[in-house]
Amino acid sequence: MITERAEALHHTAGRESGKRVAATPIATLPLQLTINGEERALQVEPWTTLLDLLREKLDLTGSKKGCDHGQCGACTVLIDGKRINSCLKLAVTLDGAEITTIEGLGQPGNLHQLQAAFIEHDAFQCGYCTPGQICSAQGLINEGHAHSRAEVREQMSGNLCRCGAYTNIADAVIEVLDRRANGEKQE
Amino acid sequence: MIRFDYSRPSGVNEAVQAGAGAQVAYLAGGTNLVDLMKENVARPLHVVDINRLPLDAIEEMDGGGLRLGALVTNADTAYDERVQRRYPLLSSAILAGASPQLRNAATNGGNLNQRTRCYYFYDVDTPCNKRNPGEGCGAIGGVNRIHAILGTSDHCIATHPSDMCVALAALNADIHVTGPAGERVIPIGEYHRLPGDEPWRDNTLKTGELVTAIDLPAEDFASHYTYLKLRDRLSYAFALVSVAVAMRIEDGAITEARVALGGVAHKPWRSPSAEELLVGEAPGDAIFATVAGAILEGAQGQGDNDFKIDLARRAIVRALHQAANGTPQSQTDKRIA
Ligand SMILES: Cc1cc2nc3c(=O)[nH]c(=O)nc-3n(C[C@H](O)[C@H](O)[C@H](O)COP(=O)(O)OP(=O)(O)OC[C@H]3O[C@@H](n4cnc5c(N)ncnc54)[C@H](O)[C@@H]3O)c2cc1C
Ligand code: SF4
Ligand code: FES
Ligand code: FES
C-alpha cells in the first residue's frame, strides 16, 4: 500500500537554472526497519523524513512535529537506542536500524517507568512535547552522562515545552534515574 | 522538500566518484543539509549518503595525536575518553553546542561544513549573495544582531555558526580531504575563509572534495583551557560570541596562548600577533585587556550587533582568566566564574 501511494506520485527530479525539469520518475527505495520491535519491509521516497514516515505512512502519530527544523525536540525518537530528531533524518539512510517511538516504550495499562513518573509528577500540561520528552529522557538514561539535577536540566535542553513544565519534567526524570541507580530495573 | 536522486556508496573512492559534478551534496547526519533542503536553500540534484563509509573511528596517530573520523558523531567525539582527557577544550566546545539529540546525529565532517545561520540566507524571499551570487545582502542595513564584526565584506557579513570549529582553530587541527584530484591536508586556519567578493564559498573545499578526518596534533592544553560561550539562552542556542583559549604556563609566566573567537566572523577568528603579546607575561587584567583590544582591532558593528564588540572584549578577558586559573567554563552550570 505504501509502495503504491508513493509510486503513484511520479515525482520529477532535477533542476536546471532554477527550474525543475521533468526527469524519470523516481522509484521508491527499499527500507528495512525494526520499529518498536516489529520488522518492517518498507518502500520510501528518498526525501521522506523518519518523522513523516512514522506519522503519515505508519500511523504512529505519537511522535510530534513541532517545528520540523530540529529546534524543539517534539519529534525525538530512539535509533538503535540513541535519541535523535526524527524531523531531520531521512528515513532511507536508516536501512537496518531499530527505531523506538513513544508507542514502543509503553502502552496504556503497561506504562513505561518514565510515563508513570511523568503522570506522577504532573510533568505536562497540553502534552504535545511529552512523547519527545520521554523518548529524550530514555536516551538520557541510556547515555549515562546525567547524574545531578543540573545535568538533567542541561541534558534535557533539546526538548522545549511551551507550557513550561520543566521543573516537573526534571523531577520525573530524576526519580527514574534514582530508582535505576538504586538497582530497580524495568522490564 | 525538494526532490533528488539518492545513492549510498560504501567506500570513499566510490563516494568521491558519485560526488563529482555540479549540484551534488554529501549527506552525513543531515541536521543541516536536510533543514536547508526543506527551506529550498540547498537544492542538490543528487544526494550522496556517506553514512556507510568507514570513517567512523577515532584513532591514535604516530607521535601522540588523535585522528577523528569525519563520520564520528559530535556526541561520540565529545564523550570519547581520549578526547576528554587530552583535548577537553574540544569536548567542552562540542557540548556547548546544539542539543544532545542533534549531537547524536551531527558528525564531525558535517559540523565543519555547516552553513551560516544568517536569517536572510535561510529565507529565499530575501536577497542573499551567499545563496544567490550577485543578488545583494539583506543583512547589511537589515536585521543583523547575530552577524559578524570582523573580516566582513561589502558582499556578506555572515558568521560561521560552529562551536566545534572554534576549538579546532585553537588546537591547530588539520583537515584531511579526498577529492577527484586526490588527497590533501588543509590546516584549520585555511579551511574556512572570509567572504570577500565570493561569499557563496564558506570554505576552501573544492567541488567534490570529501572530508575524511580531522587530526588533532599531539600538543594538548588539558590544564589551561576554556570554552566560554555567550548566547541568548543558556542552552540550545548559537553563540553570539564565544572564546576558546588554550594556554601553557610555566613558572608563573605564559609560554604559549591561543585565542579563537566564534560568532564574530565568517570563520573562527584568530590573531597570532595579539596572542604573541601574552608570551612571557604573568596572567593579569592589564595584559588580558591589551590582548583583547589587539584581537578586536578593526572590529566594526553593523548596527544591531554593535554590542558584540564590547561583549567580545569582556569575554576574551574572562576566558583568559578562566584558562590561566585552570577553571574552565562548565557547560552544565552556566554561571560564569
Ligand atoms: C536547532 C539547531 C541548533 C544548533 N545549534 C548549534 C550550536 O549551538 N553550535 C553548533 O556548533 N552547531 C549547532 N547546530 C548545527 C549542527 O552542529 C550541525 O547541523 C551539524 O554539526 C552538521 O552535521 P551533520 O553531520 O548533520 O551534517 P549534514 O547536515 O549532513 O551536512 C552539513 C553540510 O556538510 C556537508 N558535509 C557533511 N559531511 C561532509 C564531509 N565528510 N565532507 C564534505 N562535506 C560534508 C554536507 O554536504 C552539508 O553541506 C545546530 C543545529 C540545529 C538544527
Ligand atoms: S550576510 Fe551573507 S548570508 Fe546573510 S544575507 Fe548577507 S550575503 Fe547572505
Ligand atoms: S519537530 Fe523535530 S525538532 Fe521540532
Ligand atoms: S506540556 Fe505543553 S508543550 Fe510541554
UniProtKB/TrEMBL annotation, chain A:
One Pfam short name: Fer2_2
Classification via CDD domains: fer2
Biased composition (Basic and acidic residues): 1-19
Top enzyme category: oxidoreductase
Keyword Transmembrane helix annotated: no
Keywords: 2Fe-2S, Iron, Iron-sulfur, Metal-binding, Oxidoreductase
InterPro entries: 2Fe-2S-bd (IPR002888), 2Fe-2S-bd_dom_sf (IPR036884), 2Fe-2S_ferredoxin-like_sf (IPR036010), 2Fe-2S_ferredoxin-type (IPR001041), 2Fe2S_fd_BS (IPR006058), Aldehyde_Oxdr_Iron-Sulfur (IPR052914), Beta-grasp_dom_sf (IPR012675)
This enzyme's EC code(s): 1.2.7.4
GO molecular function: 2 iron, 2 sulfur cluster binding; anaerobic carbon-monoxide dehydrogenase activity; metal ion binding
2Fe-2S ferredoxin-type domain location: 29-105
PANTHER family in UniProt: OXIDOREDUCTASE WITH IRON-SULFUR SUBUNIT (PTHR45331:SF2), OXIDOREDUCTASE, IRON-SULPHUR BINDING SUBUNIT-RELATED-RELATED (PTHR45331)
Protein name, as recorded: Carbon monoxide dehydrogenase small chain
Organism: Sphingomonas jeddahensis
Automatic annotation (TrEMBL), chain B:
Keywords: FAD, Flavoprotein, Oxidoreductase
Listed InterPro entries: CO_DH_flav_C (IPR005107), CO_DH_flav_C_dom_sf (IPR036683), Diverse_Substr_Oxidored (IPR051312), FAD-bd_PCMH (IPR016166), FAD-bd_PCMH-like_sf (IPR036318), FAD-bd_PCMH_sub1 (IPR016167), FAD-bd_PCMH_sub2 (IPR016169), Mopterin_DH_FAD-bd (IPR002346)
SUPFAM superfamilies per UniProt: CO dehydrogenase flavoprotein C-terminal domain-like, FAD-binding/transporter-associated domain-like
Class of this enzyme: oxidoreductase
Pfam families from the UniProt entry: CO_deh_flav_C, FAD_binding_5
Annotated ranges, domain FAD-binding PCMH-type: 1-221
Organism: Sphingomonas jeddahensis
EC number(s) from the headed UniProt entry: 1.3.7.9
Flavoprotein is among the record's keywords: yes
Gene3D superfamilies tied to this protein: 3.30.465.10, CO dehydrogenase flavoprotein, C-terminal domain, Uridine Diphospho-n-acetylenolpyruvylglucosamine Reductase, domain 2
Gene Ontology terms, MF aspect: FAD binding; oxidoreductase activity
Transferase as UniProt keyword: no
SMART domains: CO_deh_flav_C
Domain of life: Bacteria
PANTHER family attached to this UniProt entry: OXIDOREDUCTASE, XANTHINE DEHYDROGENASE SUBUNIT C-RELATED
This protein's name: 4-hydroxybenzoyl-CoA reductase subunit beta
